[in-house]
Specification:
two-stranded antiparallel sheet; 47% helix; 6 strands; alpha+beta; 4-stranded mixed beta sheet
Length: 205
């Protein structure tokens, strides 16, 4: 046991003597170790933070734990011939299809429906070209994890009776009502007067 302690005490003594004899070298070595460890920690934390940020952003846009059924699902731009072939081949999805999935999907917590289009918005001399328009069921606010900054989302009763109400995106709200409350205002969409009931929170990517 004495030999064991003697070995390590001698090693410690030699190490301390070497450090004090070469202070600059010891200092630079210590700085190198600190910088190396700090770099690994910073890179690891950055990757973890970026991963969390991307997951949260994607969840905000696409929702979480859900899937979508579309008549034509593709990424990017299809060639015209391929688009026409898919357009002829794929069956159109109707409200009856949504109701069937809603009534028969026992493992689905929520089933919603939506349709997308585009229109040029013009009002009081202000234009917003190629605005995206979504017609959705009332529960899409939960399915897609939408955040309503002002007002509310469309209700199930309004969807059922096809009420002329809408929820504005933040960009459209800033374009047509930048300094005033948009709730209750009327915005014409394809010639139809739509009453604004809510404004969606601006998405930051």
């Amino acid at each position: 046991m004495r030999a064991f302690f003697s070995f390590y005490s001698d090693a410690l003594k030699i190490a301390l003597q070497s450090i004090f004899a070469h202070k600059l070298r010891a200092f630079l070595t210590l700085i190198g170790i600190i910088i190396g460890v700090a770099s690994v920690v910073v890179v690891g934390a950055s990757i973890s933070g970026l991963n969390t940020y991307v997951v949260e952003r994607v969840t905000k846009v696409l929702g979480s734990n859900h899937f979508m059924i579309a008549r034509m699902a593709f990424h990017g731009r299809l060639p015209d011939e391929e688009f026409e072939r898919v357009n002829r081949r794929n069956k159109r999805l109707n409200w009856d299809d949504y109701e069937w999935v809603r009534d028969h999907c026992r493992s689905c917590t929520e089933v919603g429906a939506g349709v997308q289009g585009q229109a040029d918005l013009r009002q009081e001399g202000i234009e917003f070209p190629s605005a995206l328009i979504f017609g959705v069921s009332a529960n899409m606010v939960d399915i897609e994890d939408k955040t309503i900054a002002e007002g509310r989302f469309v209700s199930a009763d309004e969807v059922q009776r096809s009420a002329l109400v809408c929820v504005l995106g933040a960009d459209i709200k800033e374009k047509f009502s930048p300094h005033i409350d948009a709730i209750g205002k009327v915005l014409k969409v394809r010639g139809l007067p739509m009453r604004v009931v809510g404004v969606e929170e601006k998405r930051v990517f």
